[in-house]
């Protein structure tokens, strides 16, 4: 099921979601800790932001390496052995930018993790394990499937409930008959009688004269 053009509120799990819609919902729900999130919503967004973090870290490392080599070369060529080495301005600026970007990424991950833990049947309080360096524990919990399949969510059929709040017949129950239009159409009006012919009267044969006025 395609979910690229579906506007589902953040906190309603979307099952079978693709990469780009999941990333958009991951970023959009930066301050939404309530509700639930499917595995696709969490892990696609987590993967995208992890790639971004790695790329930014590589950029900072390259800047720091190039600048450090330039500083060492400049300091070695200096005639004053007591001169202080220049400050790595580029490395400092790149590190500050990386820290600024990391803060919203961390908030997005915690918010999506809280929704994913709730969808898997756990309390979001497991996020506190990150404080003692055990964040891998709640990440493993986020990999578990949905706890209650009948709770509803866009893109998943559950017993007694259809996707995104639309009810469906329970197990073993026949679907209800289609509703009849109101008011019902009288049976007598289903077939129109020819002009001048009484209801229940046999149809007029070809060539037969119609009865005169007052004659039955």
Characterize the overall form.
elongated
| H/E series | HHHH
β-strand amount: under 5%
Q: Percentage of helical residues?
A: 40-55%
Largest sheet report:
none
Structural class category: mainly alpha
Q: Tally of extended strands?
A: 0
Mean pLDDT across the residues is 76
End-to-end Cα distance: 68 Å
What are the low-pLDDT stretches, counting only 5+ consecutive residues below 50? 1-5, 157-172, 177-182
Would you kindly provide a written description of the structure presented here, covering whatever features stand out?
The chain starts with 18 loop residues before the first helix and ends in a 74-residue tail after the last helix. The longest helix has 39 residues, at 39-77. With 216 residues, the protein is an all-alpha fold. The relative contact order is 0.12. It has a domain at 19-165. It has helices at residues 19-28, 39-77, 89-119, 135-142. The chain has 4 helices and no strands. Residues 1-5, 157-172 and 177-182 have low confidence and may be disordered.
């Amino acid at each position: 099921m395609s979910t690229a053009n579906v506007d589902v509120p953040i906190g309603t799990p979307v099952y079978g979601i693709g990469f780009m819609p999941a990333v958009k919902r991951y970023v959009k729900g930066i301050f939404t800790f309530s509700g639930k999130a499917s595995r696709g919503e969490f892990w696609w967004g987590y993967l995208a932001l992890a790639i971004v973090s790695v790329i930014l870290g590589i950029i900072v490392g390259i800047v720091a390496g190039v600048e450090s080599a330039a500083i060492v070369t400049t300091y070695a060529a200096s005639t004053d052995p007591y001169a202080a080495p220049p400050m790595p301005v580029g490395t400092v600026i790149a590190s500050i930018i990386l820290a600024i970007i990391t803060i919203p990424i961390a908030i997005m991950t915690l918010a999506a993790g809280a929704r994913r833990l709730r969808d898997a049947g756990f309390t979001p309080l497991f996020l506190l394990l990150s404080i003692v360096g055990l964040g891998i524990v709640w990440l493993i919990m986020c990999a578990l499937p949905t706890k209650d399949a009948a709770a509803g969510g866009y893109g998943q059929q559950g017993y007694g409930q259809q996707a995104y709040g639309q009810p469906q017949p329970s197990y073993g129950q026949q679907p209800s008959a289609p509703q009849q239009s109101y008011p019902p159409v009288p049976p007598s009006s289903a077939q129109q009688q020819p002009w001048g012919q009484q209801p229940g009267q046999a149809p007029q044969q070809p060539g037969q004269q119609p009865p005169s006025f007052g004659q039955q």
